[in-house]
Amino acid sequence: MYNEKLRSQKRLIVSADGTDTLFSEEFAEPYHSTKDGALHESLEKHVKPALSIKKEFSSLTILDICFGLGYNTFSTLYYIKKHNLKVKIHILSPEFDRELIESLKDFNYPKEFEIIKDIIYEVSRNFYYKDEQFEIEILLGDARVKVPMIKEKIDIIYQDAFSPKKNPLLWTREFFGDIALISKKDVLLTTYSIASATRLGLYENGFYIFLYYGDKTRCSTVASLKKISNLEYIDMELKKVRNPTAKSLRDINFIKNN
Ligand SMILES: C[S@@+](CC[C@H](N)C(=O)[O-])C[C@H]1O[C@@H](n2cnc3c(N)ncnc32)[C@H](O)[C@@H]1O
Q1: Across residues 223-246, what is the average pLDDT?
Q2: Taking 80 as the threshold, does the pLDDT of residue 256 lie above it?
Q3: Structural domains in the chain, sorted by start
Q4: pLDDT band at residue 202 using 50, 70 and 90 as cut-offs
Q5: Ligand 1 contact via 161 beta carbon (within 6 Å)
């Protein structure tokens, strides 16, 4: 399933919004949508939907799956600082590529991240950062092991693993079950994946599914254990009738090949 020998092999790509991302040889995929742009995708598919729906909260615990180049975590901090929001943020983020995190202090991030460059440096050095408003914890290791160990109850999940085809164990019904167990009842999950298998895996764990339209991006998925007004609701029972062969991904289909 994973190929550690290829893990260090990555090449730089400049994405459509002019921000840098990487291409992973291990997963044969870029870390971000090159068409949407790394920063733009992070803001439009994760940060803006999550923080606008949760704008009344004074503190939020976020599960960022997985850390990668940290765009989702760093865009969250950038957005909060830019809009002078007072919310306290605790981010937990699994990542099994230690070398990648260690290299981030030298990564060419967009100018928007200039105001958080000291935070980026510290995360890259210590896998941890804390001040009065922000706490960032990288959970080094396999997300399938780390997520069930989380004790905090989660308000927001950025589900941003490589695609279900390339990284299936982070999109299975069982993994979404682990996520549901550590989630608050009004948790909000954001993901770029609009695949039926992804939506079914979430739905089978009690999530309601919604369509989200970011600015100048393809649509994405928002899910919650509670119904959300003002978002386009997707009737999964109707989807099942219309697409009776669609199935959620299951661990058993992938773990045996490990
Ligand atoms: C698409 S990238 C994440 C991009 C990131 N959210 C960002 O904004 O830069 C996926 C990341 O998941 C990590 N990953 C894949 N499978 C994993 C697993 N089972 N446990 C921990 N990390 C994993 C990869 O090393 C990679 O860094």
Answers
A1: 96
A2: no
A3: 38-255 (3.40.50.150)
A4: very high
A5: yes
